Structure formats: C-alpha cells, structure tokens
Amino acid sequence: MNDIKKICNATNLKYLAVALMFLDQIYQMFGSMGAPIWLTMLGRLSFPIFLFLAADSFHYTHDRMAYLRRLLYMSWFMIIGNAIIGSIFHNGSIGLTNNAFSTFFITGIFICSWDLLAKGLRDKSNMELIQGIGVFLLPILSSIPVVILAGIFETPHANPIVVQIVAFILSLVPSIIMVEGGFVMVILGLLFYIFRTNRIAQIIVLAVISVIAHLFDPTGVQWMMVFAAIPMYFYNGERGSGNKNFFYIFYPAHLLILYLLCYFMRISGYSAV
User: Which of 65, 87, 127, 221 has its CA 20 to 30 A from that of 266?
Assistant: First the structure.
C-alpha cells in the first residue's frame, strides 16, 4: 500500500488520466468501426481524476486569475479549432466538440464564488457576499441568451448562416450549459474542492454522483467513474515532477490526430468486420 502511495503524486495521476482519456477517445472516434466498449468504460475514470487534481491545483496555485485565464484561452482555442477542423473534414456522425477546458474554467469560477461566500460569512463582509453571489450567477446568467436564441433559431424561417455565426459567438461565452460532461461535472469538481481536506468525503461524493448517473442512464457506462476513487484514495498530495504544460499540448493534439485518422479511414472505405 505504501509503495503505491509513493508513486501516486499529482503528475503520475495526471498521466494516468491522460492514458484513460486517450482510450476513451479511441472508442468515441472508432466505436462504429468496432472499437471495444471497454475502452470507454476505462475512460470514464479520466474526467473525475482531472477534476480531483484541478480542485487541488485551484487551492495551491499562487495566481488563481492567471490559472483561470489560461483555461479560458485554451477553451477558446478548442472552440475555434474544432470549428475549423470540423468544417474542413466532415466526419459523418462523429463530431469534434470536445472541450474539457470549458468545464475546468466554469468549475474554477464556482470555486472562486465559494471562497468569496465562505470568506464573507466568516468575516461578516456584505461586499464579499455580494461578490460571491455575483460570481456564482455569472455562468448561469450567461446561459440565458443561449437558451433564448436557441428557441428563436428553431423557427423554419431562421437564416442558417446567421444561426451558425450567432451559435459560434455564443459558444465563446462561458456558461453552465456549454461545458463538456454537463453541469454535473462542474458540481463534482466544486464538491471535490469543498471537501479537499477529507478524502473519504470526496470519494463518497464521487460514489453518490456515480449512482445518480446510473439512475438517469441505467444502460450507460458513466457510473463506472466511481472507480476513480482508487487512484484518488492513494493520492499522496505531492506535486511530482513533470511538464505542467503537457496536458495543454496533448489534449488538443490527440483529439486532432484521432479525428483526422477516423476521417481518412472513413473516406478510404474502412468498416468493421
């Protein structure tokens, strides 16, 4: 047990999550060509591990605003890149919409809100309470234009070009309904942060959300994210050594490579036996 815990630092857990994410994306891209479902079963563990580590990073970072800006810029990079690549290489029913950075960014916004509210209550500061509420409402209020315009553009007389332009612009605005994994992942990341000093509580939160995921989708495999509790339990709290920019490079690169590989295999006529 102690030997396992020695190697379970933040860097190694991140590499584990990256490997599991890679397996998951193989299934997402090539599932219709015969890729086995166990790839995405294992892949369900990746997002909770990333959120678990992100919650830790938000607590220890020396410059939270710089961290948030980096996540926002990468989110915009993914949105623009996905739109360009997807418009050039049409890949049938396979879409290029992945953007985990949006989820991490919104999670960070709610973490900042939580800290402001907690500090406001502790210091009895109305100003910090108001700021906390404002920060909390920001990604919620930013979703309203998306919902309203989505209803308007569903009318048969809507200009498709205008719809695409407006939809693209709105996708650049961070909101709770434009995050990968859904709002439940944002809640999971926030709860990981709130209970960051209590590992058992974090694992219980993960288990509860996994059960909820199964109840909402009994035939799906999302509930298997509960097994992320294993590396979480052995996490030793140490940073470890490694390139902190690795994920920022690997994430868009592996999606692009797999998407293009899938595209060229499709146009070459490859199909599962």
Answer: 221
Domain annotation covers residue 111:
yes
Q: For the chain, give the mean pLDDT.
A: 89
**Domain range holding 28?**
2-267
In a domain, 273, yes or no: no
What angle (nearest 5°) sits at the alpha carbon of residue 250, between those of residues 173 and 59? 65
pLDDT of residue 164: 73
Residue 159 lies in a domain: yes
pLDDT of 6 over the 90 cut:
no
In 16-68 the beta strands, taken as DSSP E runs, fall at: none
Cα 134 to Cα 88, 141, 182, 201, 267, distances in angstroms: 40, 10, 22, 28, 49
Q: Please state, in angstroms and rounded to a whole number, the distance separating the CA atoms of residues 44 and 38.
A: 10
Kindly state the average pLDDT of the residues 243-264: 90
- Whether 272 is in a domain gets the answer no
Contacts of 149 (CB under 8 A, 6+ apart): 166, 167, 170
Cβ–Cβ < 8 Å for 40, 27: yes
Half-sphere exposure of 124 (CA within 13 A, CB side): 0
Q: Whole-model pTM?
A: 0.90
pLDDT digits (tens, 9 = 90+) for 72-107: 999 999 999 998 998 888 877 777 889 999 999 999
Domains contained in the chain, number: 1
Q: Which helix (H) or strand (E) holds 33?
A: none
Distance from the Cα of residue 250 to its chain's centroid: 15
Instruction: Tell me which DSSP letter residue 197 carries.
Output: T
CB-hemisphere CA count at 13 Å for 200? 0
CB atoms inside a 10 Å sphere around CB 142: 17
Cα of first residue to Cα of last residue in the chain, in angstroms, is 43
